[in-house]
UniProtKB/TrEMBL annotation:
<feature type="region of interest" description="Disordered">
    <location>
        <begin position="1"/>
        <end position="24"/>
    </location>
</feature>
<dbReference type="GO" id="GO:0006950">
    <property type="term" value="P:response to stress"/>
</dbReference>
<feature type="compositionally biased region" description="Basic and acidic residues">
    <location>
        <begin position="7"/>
        <end position="24"/>
    </location>
</feature>
<dbReference type="InterPro" id="IPR036390">
    <property type="entry name" value="WH_DNA-bd_sf"/>
</dbReference>
<feature type="domain" description="HTH marR-type">
    <location>
        <begin position="24"/>
        <end position="156"/>
    </location>
</feature>
<dbReference type="InterPro" id="IPR000835">
    <property type="entry name" value="HTH_MarR-typ"/>
</dbReference>
<keyword id="KW-0238">DNA-binding</keyword>
<dbReference type="Pfam" id="PF12802">
    <property type="entry name" value="MarR_2"/>
</dbReference>
<dbReference type="InterPro" id="IPR036388">
    <property type="entry name" value="WH-like_DNA-bd_sf"/>
</dbReference>
<protein>
    <submittedName>
        <fullName>DNA-binding transcriptional regulator, MarR family</fullName>
    </submittedName>
</protein>
<dbReference type="GO" id="GO:0003677">
    <property type="term" value="F:DNA binding"/>
</dbReference>
<dbReference type="GO" id="GO:0003700">
    <property type="term" value="F:DNA-binding transcription factor activity"/>
</dbReference>
<dbReference type="InterPro" id="IPR039422">
    <property type="entry name" value="MarR/SlyA-like"/>
</dbReference>
Length: 165
């Protein structure tokens, strides 16, 4: 069996997620394989722009609007709040985000993108979209539209509480 035929690309063939007679693999196994391929393809694009995956996740969330506070941001992106502080410190030091004391509670900080953060996010997002076009090249235009329309229905984006910038 070639490495391309293995489920996880590690060289192991444990049969996880294999067809059980129903005609398809488990959804989790299929999505995991697709996710690994996308993450592997995104990693060099992020690295070329000096970002980690988590930094890009933060910039992407903040591109939707300011986070009312760091705790809300941590919850929305599903990241450990103590690790998020260091990540935000690094992004702020690089001039990509700004934290301002909250109006209601000065111990709480509103987090938003700077112009430089917005520009970097737009540049990286364009590179990722170009990579995704290549990734989806095996699908005809109608299949692409269907896939891109159906995925958000399976995993709707949680609507963040957007603070005013």
């Amino acid at each position: 069996m070639s490495e391309a035929d293995r489920e996880d690309g590690t060289g192991r063939d444990d049969g996880a997620g294999r067809d059980d007679g129903t005609g398809r693999e488990d959804l989790g196994a299929m999505f995991a394989r697709v996710t690994r391929r996308l993450v592997d393809a995104e990693a060099p694009l992020l690295a070329e722009n000096g970002l980690t995956m988590w930094e890009y996740v933060v910039l992407s969330r903040l591109a939707l609007g300011a986070a009312p506070n760091q705790l809300t941001l941590a919850r929305e992106i599903r990241h450990d709040k103590t690790r998020l502080i260091k990540l935000l410190d690094d992004l702020q030091r690089r001039g990509l985000v700004v934290r301002r004391p909250g109006a209601a509670d000065r111990r709480s900080y509103t987090v938003s993108l700077t112009d430089a953060g917005r520009a970097l996010h737009a540049r990286v997002r364009a590179a990722i979209r170009a990579m995704e076009d290549g990734f989806l090249a095996g699908l005809d235009p109608a299949e692409r539209r269907s896939l891109l329309a159906l995925l958000p229905r399976l995993a709707p984006r949680e609507t963040p509480e957007i603070a005013e910038d």
